[in-house]
Design goal:
Layout (H helix, E strand, L loop, with lengths): L2 H7 L20 E3 L16 H6 L3 H18 L3 E3 L22 H16 L4 E7 L12 E3 L2 H8 L1 H9 L4 E4 L3 E2 L2 E2 L4 H11 L5 E4 L8 H6 L16 H6 L5 H17 L17 H14 L1 E5 L12 E6 L1 H4 L19 H8 L4 E6 L8 H6 L2 E7 L17 H13 L3 E6 L15 E4 L7 H9 L21 H5 L6 E3 L8 H6 L17 E8 L6 E10 L5 E11 L10 E10 L4 E9 L5 E3 L4 E3 L3 E8 L7 E7 L2
Parallel strand pairs: 1-2, 2-3, 3-5, 4-6, 4-15, 5-8, 10-11, 10-12, 12-13, 13-14
Antiparallel strand pairs: 6-7, 9-14, 16-17, 17-20, 18-19, 18-23, 21-22, 23-24
Helix pairs in contact: 1-10, 3-4, 3-11, 4-6, 11-16, 13-16
The structure holds beta-D-glucopyranose.
Beta-D-glucopyranose binds next to strand 3.
């Protein structure tokens, strides 16, 4: 290969790389990511990834990956720009909906399965945005300042898992600086951690236009300058190679990585476009719908207001701006133009019983028809953000748009039977209406057809089973969120350290509005005991006895949190380390085996520069949310 040919490989061409026809090296075609396949026109719009995380269902995450891998193949894409695995540190982050919530263990389990699913179809996955790109406003200028232990145990963890366990072929360096150095020219991030500690053999590409320099980026470990090689090109690179500022060995390593990605995936041997696969495979749309069914979270249900019994004659008043328009996804580069879409109003009309009358009033003009609101048998208020308000490149407020907040406050005062359905990627300020609302459903962004799932939940055809992958605070006041956002002078200081999300609420003994891991069902479950097989060398198995004590079939997620009794270092009060969904018929019980990997309870010793699994006793807390953990036991590691 000539130096010119090598350098040609290092810069993108928009959404791809250059071919070298003389050597039979094919061009790579890429596509966004991560809510489906964006770059080829209308496509299946999957629910937001945060909804996938809310499923607590690694097997479904794998199916999502497989479906997206097929969507890529049906369009000839070699590289999928997903999954996004940044953690949900503050609710304002415009891209929270693209990620897997606040907990590194849940995000890791989800990410590993998505990556394996995508890559099983002969498509390379790209974990992004590396790293600590946890808010959007001024993302290209801000520095995320995070201590190493917090990085290793929280923010880098899902990348680590997606790469070392999931085998992701690519990683995307973020726009922001990490501890003062741009991610795309950060040698600690791209070389020490990614390539040396994790042994990554794939390609480190920049986010689009995130490369800020030539020599520092080349030497820091960035392999591919995307989107259009503004720095890594045949005008700028040859002189710095001739002058010795960048060695040929450094260029060769990048070329090898790109070629390794191409050859290991047989991209030179077969056409990536597989026209036997449909762009619009009903099996993939079924996966999307299933994610919305499992990931929609029932947050409140006073007096069994839901589900709406189909037999009764009722006047259902649907209100709110997000009812009539199909709100399918958040905004920015992940937004998919859905092949099929359905608004929640249409979905409600389709699911309503023969005796129901469904009326729609947007109620966005500030005028509330009091008599109509009072007399409705039930009101379904569909609120939240949309792709114009919550999305990439900007942040959103914690509060809902004022008109929505005031509408909700007024209608809950007039009628106790208000069901609020909310679209957002993380918590919103519910304080003005949460106590009076009859029921609340967190609908995230449900994708093209996911509003059908929400309507099925409203009318009881589907029993909700989603669990919050992120804490919903009652208020930001007097919490870490208050000082965490907005940044001051471009410095995003992660002062809360490890105590982010539920770890902060636990440490400070503050009750969130709705805790991490929480979500209601139309049935009830009881866990009464668990058995614990003594820990082996690498893993242990808990067997939890659980019974569906209600009157209908349902699904619960058993969650296992761990805390070391004594430790050399400060540890969070508890951390999620295992979980398992289980579906049971009314009255049915089961002994559910849940594997726990011991390595997952290690901490990162910054001085020794390694993970340390301390011997001793660990408390095990088992239950159905981070704040409902009725079963306690302990695990002994080592002597
Ligand atoms: C986003 C990436 C995306 C890329 C290509 C950037 O603005 O941050 O997530 O993959 O654009 O569209």
């Amino acid at each position: 290969m000539t130096l010119t040919e090598k350098i040609d490989l290092l810069g993108g061409t928009g959404f791809g790389t250059r071919a070298i026809p003389r050597l039979g090296v094919p061009a790579l075609q890429m596509t966004d990511g991560p809510v489906g396949v964006r770059n080829f026109g209308p496509a299946i719009a999957y629910p937001a990834p945060v909804c996938l995380a809310a499923c607590f269902d690694p097997e479904l995450a794998r199916q999502y990956g497989v479906a997206i891998g097929k969507d890529c193949r049906s369009n000839g894409a070699h590289v999928w720009l997903g999954p996004g695995v940044n953690l949900s540190r503050v609710p304002q982050n415009g891209r929270n909906f693209e990620y897997f919530g606040e907990d590194p263990f849940l995000a890791s389990r989800t990410a590993v399965n998505v990556v394996e699913g995508v890559q099983s179809q002969g498509v390379a996955a790209t974990v992004k945005h590396f790293a600590a790109n946890d808010e959007e406003a001024d993302r290209t200028e801000n520095s995320s300042n995070v201590d190493e232990r917090t990085l290793r145990e929280l923010y880098l963890k899902p990348f680590d898992a997606a790469i070392q366990e999931g085998g992701a072929w690519a990683v995307m360096a973020a726009y922001n600086k990490l501890n003062g150095a741009w991610c795309a020219e950060n040698p600690w991030l791209l070389t020490t951690v990614l390539k040396e500690d994790w042994g990554f053999h794939g390609v480190a590409m920049s986010d689009w236009g995130a490369t800020r320099s030539l020599v520092p980026s080349l030497n820091a470990g960035l392999d591919l300058d995307m989107g259009s090689g503004g720095f890594f090109n045949n005008v700028l690179v040859p002189p710095v190679v001739s002058s010795g500022q960048v060695s040929v060995a450094v260029v060769d390593d990048k070329v090898r990585r790109i070629l390794r990605l191409i050859y290991s995936n047989d991209f030179d041997k077969r056409p990536q476009l597989d026209s036997s696969i449909s762009h619009d495979d009903p099996a993939n749309e079924a996966v999307a719908l299933q994610i919305a069914r499992e990931g929609t979270v029932l947050l409140k249900n006073r007096g069994g207001l839901l589900p709406l019994d189909p037999g009764r004659k009722r006047m259902i008043l649907v209100v709110g701006p997000n009812a009539e328009k199909a709100v399918t996804g958040g905004g920015g580069s992940s937004y998919i133009d859905p092949i099929r879409k359905i608004s929640l109003l249409e979905a409600i009309q389709a699911q309503a019983g023969p005796h129901d009358t469904v009326l729609y009033e947007p109620l966005t003009d500030g005028k509330i028809p009091a008599a109509e609101v009072r007399s409705a048998d039930v009101i379904i208020a569909v609120v939240g953000f949309n792709k114009e308000i919550e999305g990439e490149g900007r942040d959103r407020s914690f509060g809902l748009p004022l008109a929505q907040e005031s509408m909700l406050e007024q209608i809950v005062a007039l009628n106790p039977r208000v069901v609020v359905v909310n679209n957002s990627g993380a918590g919103v300020d519910m304080s003005a209406w949460v106590d009076k609302a009859g029921a609340i459903i967190q609908g995230w962004y449900p994708g093209g057809t996911g509003n059908q799932a929400i309507a099925e939940i409203l009318f009881g055809k589907v029993n909700p089973s989603g669990k919050l992958p992120v804490s919903f605070p009652r208020t930001l006041k007097s919490t870490y969120y208050e000082t965490a956002y907005p940044p001051v002078n471009g410095q995003v200081d992660y002062k809360e350290g490890l105590f982010m999300g539920y770890r902060w609420f636990d440490q400070n003994k503050v009750d969130p509005l709705f805790p991490f891991g929480f979500g209601l069902s139309y049935t009830t479950f009881r866990m009464d005991r668990f058995r614990f097989d003594p820990a082996g060398k690498d893993s242990a198995t808990l067997t939890v006895h659980i019974r569906n004590t209600g009157r209908r079939e349902g699904t619960e997620t058993i969650q296992v949190y761990v805390h070391p009794k004594a430790s050399q270092v400060v540890r969070p009060v508890k951390e999620l380390k295992a979980f398992q969904r289980v579906s049971l018929k009314a009255g049915e019980d089961a002994n559910v085996a849940i594997p726990l990997k011991l390595a997952d309870v290690a901490y990162f010793d910054v001085k020794a520069h390694k993970w340390v699994l301390e011997p001793g006793r660990y408390d095990l807390l088992v239950g159905t949310s981070s704040r409902n953990l009725p079963l306690k036991g302990y695990l002994q590691i080592g002597p």
